[in-house]
Amino acid sequence: MGPSRTSPLRAFELLVVAVVGGGLALGGAALFGDLGSHTTIQQITRSSTTNASVTAAPTVGLAPERIYSQDSPGVVQITATSVTQVPSDPFGLLPSTPETEQSLGSGFVIDRAGHIVTNYHVIAGAQKVQVSFSSQDQLAATVVGSDKSTDVAVLKIDAHSRALTPLPLGDSDAVRVGDPVYAIGNPFGLDRTFTAGVVSAVGRQITAPNNSPVENAIQTDAAINHGNSGGPLLNDEGRVIGVTSQIQTGSNDASSGNVGVGFAIPINTVRDIASQIISTGKAQHAFLGVSALPITSQVAQLFHLPTTKGLLVQQVSGAAKSAGIKGGTTSVVVSGESYWVGGDIITKIDGSPVTTYQQLVTAILTHKPGDKLSIELWHKNAKKTVTVTLGAKS
Predict the structure, then answer these.
(1) pTM of structure
(2) Are 152 and 265 in contact (CB under 8 A)?
């Protein structure tokens, strides 16, 4: 078996190829054949009844079947359709042929105005997006906006408020390792599948579609697979604490199934991004413009640095450059690691010590473009404090 890899839970792609005007057939579970005989957690798929059950350890929260009963009506299946032009011959002598590609993902209702949250990668490049609450209905959805940097998108459907079941949002900062969690989504096109597990870790970093880091992701062993993208990860009160987004596969084949390592974007991040998108159609992220590496004792000793703790500034741009923060001037290699030395050393952000780049990123995430940030640093062996007005990440 090859090395494991982290891959986006790209909406389970039904690569249905057809000349425009041709028919598209979605054959349900029969289309996919045997889904595999080995599963790590029981999956329960919605049938004609409204009940579901799952074996889970007793908790002080709601019973799993109650969580499913109250929250599953607010979970939707998303069908994203795109049309591409494919060359009819390798020499480009014949007209290209239009081909239709569909992908399936998940999402959930967040208000009675008809707004639905999902992943950006579920609807990326789609010419048409449709939402279904059951196998019998399919509603046209408008993309209100999306944010590649956090893999979040907001859709809107035209439906009566009384027909919608918004899911209550929780607090992802309160999530702890070992907490019971539940996922509802549409893995492999199987609508409203319910799985259970625990929080395996918090504070993970995952990569967004534009390669930006998404901080404080929640890791879980609840079974989530391709097609779960954009669905809710729920706590034992039935509140959304994250949006399922990625899985760790067991090989280099990104189409491999879940091996008990999945990741969800924290709902506190999603809440902020979705609010911005609904208000303005887009999201903005604060940008400092600093790349930095933590100081090691060896680097501090070799280059006679004034401190052994902090971040050695490598390069600067944007707001940091405007504030006078200086990057390194000389390239060196220490124990196989490349550094730029001769620049400033950041020791505190808004009065809090920073010794890792993660701490610096987390501090910036708590601010918005235009906010002022107080940075304590060493500049040419002298301590100083600068105030930076944060810019916006493009």
Answers:
(1) 0.71
(2) yes
Distances (CA, A) of 337 to 142, 268, 295: 48, 35, 12
Question: Tokens for 157?
Answer: 């459907």
User: What one-letter code names the amino acid at 40?
Assistant: T
Percent of the chain topping pLDDT 70: 82
What is the DSSP-derived secondary structure letter of residue 166? P
CB atoms within 10 A of CB 95: 10
Structure tokens belonging to residue 181: 């969690």
Which pLDDT tens digit goes with each residue over 332-358?
Answer: 999 999 999 999 999 999 999 999 887
Report the C-alpha gap between 245 and 312 in whole angstroms.
33
Q: DSSP state, 192?
A: T
**HSE-CB of 355 using CA atoms within 13 angstroms:** 6
Q: Are 108 and 155 in contact (CB under 8 A)?
A: no
Structure tokens, 321: 């450059």
Q: Is the pLDDT of residue 258 over 80?
A: no
Q: Which residues are catalytic?
A: 121, 151, 229
User: Which domains are present in the chain?
Assistant: 5-20+62-280 (2.40.10.120), 286-392 (2.30.42.10)
Distance CA 19, CA 324 (A): 58
- In angstroms, what CA-CA distances link 103 with 45, 78, 89, 164, 175? 19, 8, 26, 24, 31
Q: CB under 8 Å to 318, separation ≥6 — which residues? A: 287, 288, 289, 391
